[in-house]
């Protein structure tokens, strides 16, 4: 869900679009379960070898009062999946040291956390990890995944020591965590984060606007409940939109918190060679921990992008790209044309770990582009991927009114219902919302409307005209 930046005409009004595609379909009672069904389908088929191992015949020293106690540390095994623990309930016969084994059979990061005694086990996806903890008293202890959003999504279970009836050690039904937002995991991000939202400058001095982009790794929720490692600007994928006015002086400090070198290339505007962002040709790479200040005059007006230009085939599909929009100078012919659109949407297409995404999300979490009957709608499309994407709009013939930042003269405007956009290209399209309904807007390479091979998914958004 993202990319719903209203046009300048509507800035200051409440955001026009907040619903996700899934939400709309749920509203219409159609396929609300797609996300869930799909998530289940892709979960791994690991079984749940809950085991309580350890002989139960010999009393362990120090626990003589317990009726039957294991001879060594008791062992409990739990599997973390996307996005549930199996089993959800485990137990050991009595107090004492316990070895907790956790296997991460999912594709994303999980941990197993118990608050008291303090336990945190972090197995990497596909791996196992274990730790020992001593449970002094019988009781029921909650375990959960502490990655933001995972507990709330159901990654929680109970660990019973002895008969479970007891004692001061029993934690009260765990208090709600103070907030899921502060990161316990440097590489996590909040669910439902949105890319391609307008970035506020850190300072404005006349027409000099200064922005900050920090390249860093997060876990990105590409479809509901499915997190993938993303390399981002400011923790979102795509990066935030840098939106300025023609003639502004744009300064962008890029900080590198990635595990490798990077640079940023501003793709489309006319800038000085030394600001072109090509490593070893116009500038040295930005080392991890380092930063670089880009500065250029915003010209000409148009729809542009910015992206990494180092190890690009790896870094860009992981998320290191975003939109640069230069709005036309006030009172120019282009500014008057822009004032005629009631809706202005921005979409970045890219491929991401087997997901074909629009603004960093694959269907069903892509945007709903809303319009009221009679409104003029513009969509600005950027292909930041590595494959061409023929984008097809149902229910309409749209006008192609510009490309690569340049508006077409009236005589060059043409109508399409499917527009192929090659990597690096941008197209501006418009249509008059005169045909009510829910119309899909999707890539017509049909493997691109799948999520890791499962249809529907991928590059599919919905235009809602009502
Ligand atoms: Cu495609």
What is the CATH superfamily of the largest domain?
Answer: Cupredoxins -  blue copper proteins
Which structural class do you get from the secondary structure elements? mainly beta
Given the structure, what is the number of helices? 4
The total number of structural domains is: 3
Helical content stands at under 10%
Bound chemical compounds: copper (II) ion
Mind explaining what this structure looks like?
It is a single chain. The chain has 466 residues and is mainly β. The chain has 3 domains: 119 residues, Immunoglobulin-like; 143 residues, Sandwich (Immunoglobulin-like); 127 residues, Cupredoxins -  blue copper proteins (Immunoglobulin-like, Sandwich). The strands form 7 sheets. Strands 20, 21, 23, 25, 26, 27 and 29 form a 7-stranded mixed beta sheet that branches. Strands 1, 2, 3, 5 and 8 form a 5-stranded mixed beta sheet that branches. Strands 11, 12, 13, 15 and 17 form a 5-stranded mixed beta sheet that branches. A hairpin with a 2-residue loop joins strand 11 and strand 12. The longest helix is centred in the first third of the chain and has 9 residues. The relative contact order is 0.12. The structure holds copper (II) ion (CU). Copper (II) ion binds next to loops.
């Amino acid at each position: 869900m993202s990319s719903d930046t209203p046009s300048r005409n509507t800035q200051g009004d409440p955001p026009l679009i907040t619903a996700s595609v899934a939400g709309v379909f749920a509203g219409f009672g159609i396929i609300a379960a797609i996300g869930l069904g799909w998530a289940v389908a892709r979960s791994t088929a690991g079984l749940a070898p809950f085991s309580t191992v350890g002989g139960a015949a010999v009393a362990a020293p120090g626990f003589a009062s317990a009726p039957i106690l294991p001879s060594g540390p008791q062992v409990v095994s739990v599997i973390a999946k996307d996005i549930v623990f199996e089993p959800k309930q485990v137990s050991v016969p009595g107090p004492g040291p316990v070895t907790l084994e956790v296997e991460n059979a999912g594709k994303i990061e999980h941990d197993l956390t118990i608050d008291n005694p303090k336990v945190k086990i972090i197995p990497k996806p596909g791996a196992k990890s274990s730790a020992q903890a001593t449970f002094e008293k019988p009781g029921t202890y909650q375990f959960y995944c502490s990655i933001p959003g995972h507990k709330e999504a159901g990654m929680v279970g109970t660990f019973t020591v002895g008969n479970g009836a007891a004692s001061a050690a029993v934690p009260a039904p765990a208090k709600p965590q103070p907030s899921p937002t502060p990161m316990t995991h440097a590489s996590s991000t909040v669910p439902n984060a949105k890319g391609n939202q307008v970035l506020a400058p850190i300072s404005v001095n006349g027409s000099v606007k200064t922005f900050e982009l920090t390249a860093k790794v997060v876990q990105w929720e590409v479809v509901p409940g499915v997190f993938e490692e993303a390399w981002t600007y400011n923790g979102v994928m795509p990066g935030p939109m840098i939106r300025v006015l023609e003639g502004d002086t744009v300064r962008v400090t890029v900080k590198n918190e990635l595990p490798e070198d990077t640079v940023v290339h501003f793709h489309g505007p006319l800038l000085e060679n030394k600001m072109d962002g090509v490593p070893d040709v116009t500038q040295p790479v930005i080392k991890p921990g380092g930063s670089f200040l880009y500065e250029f005059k915003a010209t000409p007006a148009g729809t542009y992008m910015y992206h990494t230009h180092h190890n690009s085939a790896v870094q860009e599909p992981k998320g290191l790209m975003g939109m640069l929009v230069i709005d036309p100078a006030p009172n120019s012919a282009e500014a008057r044309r822009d004032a005629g659109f009631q809706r202005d949407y921005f979409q970045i297409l890219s491929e991401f770990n087997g997901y074909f995404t629009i603004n960093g999300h694959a269907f069903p979490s892509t945007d709903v582009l809303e319009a009221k009957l009679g409104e003029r709608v513009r969509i600005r499309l950027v292909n930041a991927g590595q494959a061409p994407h023929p984008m097809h709009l149902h229910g309409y013939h749209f006008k192609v009114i510009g490309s690569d930042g340049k508006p077409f003269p009236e005589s060059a405007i043409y109508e399409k219902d499917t527009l192929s956009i090659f990597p690096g290209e941008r197209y501006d399209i418009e249509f008059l919302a005169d045909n009510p309904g829910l119309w899909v807007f999707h890539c017509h390479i049909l493997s691109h409307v799948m999520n890791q091979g499962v249809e529907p998914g991928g590059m599919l958004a919905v235009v809602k005209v009502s």
